[in-house]
Amino acid sequence: MTSISAGPAGQLRIAPSILSADFGFLADAVRAVDAETDWLHLDVMDGHFVPNVTIGPPVVHSLRRYSERVFDCHLMMAEPGRYLESFAAAGATSCTVHVEVGDTAALVRQARQVGLRVGLAANPDTPYEAVAPFLGSIDLLLLMTVFPGFAGQSFLPEVMAKVATARDEIDRRHLSVDLEVDGGIDETTAPIATRAGANVLVAGSAIFARDDARDAAHRLREAALEGLS
Ligand code: DX5
Ligand code: ZN
What we know:
Oligomer: single chain
Bound molecules: D-xylitol-5-phosphate, zinc ion
Radius of gyration: 16 Å
Strand content: 15-25%
C-alpha cells in the first residue's frame, strides 16, 4: 500500500500512459517525462475484458522503486476484484475498474478497504446513467475516448457530451472527483477535452511515440491549458 497523495481533485494533470513506452526501458521512460507530467497511467489488460495483454502487479512493484508518482492503474480486466489487493501491495495509488464488468458497488468498497483511491471507467458507448449512481463514492471518473485495448486510436469527440454532463454534476454537488479522459489525446484533442470539463488527460502515443517525450508532454500541457482559458 502507498500513502502518496493525489492532491486536490479538479486540477489539470497530465498522465502519460506507459503502454506506448519501450517496455525494455520503462524506468527511463518514466524519468524522461517526470518534470513535465503529474500522474503515471498504467494500462492493465487481461486478454478477456479486452483482447490485449499487458502488465500486472509485478511491473507496478518494480516501477515503484523508480518513481514516487501517483500510479493511476487502469484495470481493463473482467475480474478486477481478484487483483485489487495485489495492486495495492505493489504500490498502486489508485485502481480504476470498468463499470461494464458489473458488481461496481462491491468493487468500490473492496478497493477502499485495501487503501486504494477508487476510479470508475466507462467505455465510449456506455451511457452516463451507468456511472452516475457511483459519483459520490469514487475519487476518479474515467470516460474513455476510444474503445479500450490499444494505444494509437482516434479520439471519439461524441464522448465530450458525457464529459460535460459529468463535469456539471461534479461541480454542482461539489464532489471531490477527478474527471479523466483516455484515448487519442494529443495537442489537437487535449483542449477539446479540457474545454468539455476533463481535468486528467491520459496520453500514450502523443508522448512516448514522439522523438522527445519530455517536450511532447510539455506541449500537451500547454495545449490542455488553452482549453481552460
Ligand atoms: C487504451 C488505453 C490507453 C492508451 C492510450 O486502451 O487505456 O491508456 O494507452 O493511448 P493513446 O494515447 O495512444 O490513445
Ligand atoms: Zn488507460
